[in-house]
Amino acid sequence: MPFFLRDESSARLRAFGDTRSRNLTIAAACCYVLMLAMQLYTLLTFRGEPISDAARYVGTALRCVREGHFYPVAADFIGKGAAGTGYVNLLVLLFRLTGSVRSAYVLNMVFVQILLFSVLTLACRATGSPDVCALTAILFCLSAPYWAEICIARTELCFTALAFLALALLYGKRGGLPLLAGLLLAYANWVRPLAMAFFVSAVWILLYRRAKWHGYVRLFAGAAIMIAAICLFTYHGSGRFVYQPTVASGNLLIGANEDADGSYSDVVFSEGKAGYIPHEQKKTMAFDEINAVYSAEAKKWIRENPGRYVSLMPRRLFYMYAMDTYSGEVYFDNLKTTSGKAYVQEIAGMLRGNGRAWTFGDVVICYGQAFYMLTFVLFLCGVVRSMRKGYWRSLSFLFGIFLIGTATIMLTVGSGRYHFPYLPVLQITAAAFLRSAVHTRKTHRKDTTSCGESETSA
Predict the structure, then answer these.
(1) How far is the C-alpha of 423 from the C-alpha of 405, rounded, in Å?
(2) Of 438, 437, 434, residue with least CA distance to 142
(3) What is d(CA 19, CA 11) in angstroms, rounded to the nearest whole number?
(4) What's the rounded Cα separation, in Å, for the pair 39 and 144?
(5) pLDDT tens-place string over residues 340-355
(6) How does pLDDT run across 236-249, given as a tens digit for each residue?
(7) How far apart are CA 172 and CA 163, in angstroms?
(8) Which of 71, 240, 319, 422 has its CA 20 to 30 A from that of 432?
(9) Of 285, 277, 284, 278, whose CA–CA distance to 253 is shortest?
(10) Contact at 8 Å (CB) between 155 and 57?
């Protein structure tokens, strides 16, 4: 049997045991109720307007509703690139049905439930342990981004829910599920162009499960069908056969210019900088022409400054995984930025007794950051323990997502919200570590007690 495809059922049994803890199940249910309560609180109290990317998606969807078409049309390819296309079209459909922008937040709540179901399915199937499943539920439900992100109309939640649902379907037994998984992954990539890491993971799941050849055919066929349908849909609305019409090279240029510091700073697009295109010129350019300008400038800088480019990678990694405060704006009705250095300094001053008074949002954000860091440390411990205890292959499809996604960011630009799609990877791995550590301790204690009793009897 190939080294990477060895069965690990016995290793998982030694690591996690074969019992189910009723207390863990009850705790998971309580945490789920807490998550729902926090989501409802956030939904009912939020009074802010969409900002940043969310404002663009909602504004575009409302424009499409007014003009009576879907997204994009030919004009959307001039002066800018279409972004979050799959998500915007969901919003267009939703707004036509409900007439309310806040219905997007209810849809986000649905996406959280889909994501939770998918993550628990993967945790249970990958480890074979109900206790790991329960611990994953606890870590998931206690993670603050799932409380606040519902009131932010961005692509991360929709993308992550669809991508992990696709992976969960591959553990099912029905023959048509790989086809549906392929459809979902291709659509998820239309929402946010990150699905390649998940597609590689999907193939790895089929390999590890020793799926028959038609499973791979159905997975690829599903993706091909969805991509073809999207291209035809885009052609019908805009006259272009396009699947991902984004100005993707913009992120590459943000991370590869003389002012780059690893963070998401758009100073490179200012007048006099490498990415500056005069407004009058830019509004007449197609997205592929803008992409070509950004790509050429970024590649030129990388060729001339390879050492500087490589030295920025650790900084991008830091900016990606250090902070988990990006969704906290909703507790301030989007009137305060909580994802930057300024907010961290503000909190530090408040801890010293200086500055403004504490608010509910500040408390939730600080809790969320502390819990995220705990989860991240447990994740790192879980990676090491999975290799020591021999169950790493069962989780390798998760590690692949994490590594490919992280590598992509290290080549472009770092931002805290970019780690959102990988939170489930941290949670499942951390839960496996906790269960393995507790089970090993109990087994060792039982063995020690048995030895003591045997020596006494002798």
Answers:
(1) 12
(2) 434
(3) 15
(4) 10
(5) 788 988 999 998 888 7
(6) 998 888 887 666 78
(7) 15
(8) 319
(9) 277
(10) yes
